[in-house]
Amino acid sequence: MLSLLGEVACSSSRLVGRGTNVISRRSLPKHVHLPRYLWDMEDLKEKTGGEYTHKPLQINRLGGRHPETGRKINQHIGGGYKFDYFLIDFHRRGPTTEGDFYEERVLEVRRDANRSSHIAFVAGANGKRWILATENMKAGQIITTTCHMAANPLIGKEGCAYPLGSLAIGTLINSIERYPTMDSEAFVQVAGQSATIVRHQGEFTIVKMPYKHEYSFHRECMATVGRLSHADFHDKIFGSAQMHRRFGYKMSSGLFHKKDGYCGRRVRPLPPVRVFDTPAEPEPENQKFTLTKSQLSGLQGHAKVHNLLPSGYSGRPYPD
After folding, report:
1. Residue 65 scores a pLDDT above 70
2. Alpha-carbon distance 221 to 113, whole Å?
3. Which residues lie closer than 8 Å to 20 by C-beta, 6 or more apart?
C-alpha cells in the first residue's frame, strides 16, 4: 500500500514539476475569432483622402500586428509580395422610382491576390469602380442596380443589385449591407459563398448565412443576386511552402497543439435570429495619462516613506 502511494506521489510530482504549468481550459474564456490585421487603413485614408478611387494603390501592410500597439495578433499572417490593392465598392445604389435602373457594363473580370473572390471592373454614367464578381459574370455584360421596393417579390438577375425586400424567398445573394443608406460593412464576401433569403417579416428580411446563422436586416438593405465567383479557391494547391509565403501566409510552428473540448463533435444549437436594427454607438476613445512613480505606487501619507529612513539609515552621519 505504501509503495502504491509513493508511486502516485511521484507521478503527480512529475505532472506538476518545476517550470510546468498545468491549467484547466474549462476556466478560460470562450474561443473567439480575432480580427485580421492585413492593411493599414489609416495609411489608406491618407493616400485616398477618404474618397473612392479605382486606381491600384500601394498601402502599408500590418502583417498581423495591431496598428496602435504593434503586438502580434494574427500568427499566420506576414511577409509576402506587395500586391496592388484595389478598393471594392460594396454599396451599390440606384434610382428609387419604379422602372428606372442604373446600368453598368462589365469591362474586366480578374483575380485579386488580396481577396479570394474575383473582382469585376464596371463602368457607368457615374464613373468606374471595382465590385465583387459573381459566378457567371463576364466582360461585356450589362448589370443593373435599383433601390425601388417592388410591391411583389421578384426573381432577381445574377449580378444585379436589389433591396432585400424586393427579392423572392430562396434567392441566393451576396455583399449584403448591414444598415441601409450607410457605408457599413457588408456580409458574404468569401469566394464561392452565398446567403439565402428565408422569409420577410414586416420591415425586416431574414437571411440565412453560409454558416447557418440567421440575421434580420432592414428591407431597404441592398444585396447582389448570385453566388460569388472562384468557388474552387479552397481546393487549389499552392504547390510549395514558398508559394504560401509569397501570398502572405506564414507557416505555423512544429509544436504539437493538444486538442481541447472546442474540437469535439458536440452538436451545438444555433443561436437565435440576430437583428440589425440600429447601429451601435461608437466606443469612447482611450485616454492616455503619464504618472510618476509616486502616483503609480498608490501610497499616501507615512506609507510613502520607507520604514528604514526614519530609523537613521538614510546616508547621513549616525549620532552616537
Report:
1. yes
2. 29
3. none
Domain borders along the chain are: 32-87, 102-230
Burial profile 78-109: b = 16 or more Cβ within 10 angstroms, e = fewer = bebeeeebbbbbbebbbeeeeeebbebebeeb
DSSP codes, 60-71: -B-TTB-TTT--
Total-model pTM: 0.78
Q: How far apart are CA 177 and CA 165, in angstroms?
A: 13
Instruction: Tell me the backbone φ, ψ of residue 105, rounded to 5 degrees.
Output: -105, 135
Is residue 274 helix, strand or coil? strand
3-class SS of residue 44 = helix
Q: Does domain 102-230 have CATH number 2.40.160.40?
A: no
User: Phi/psi of residue 88, each to 5°?
Assistant: -105, 130
Start-to-end Cα distance in the chain: 67
Which residue did the predictor score with more confidence, 93 or 307?
A: 93
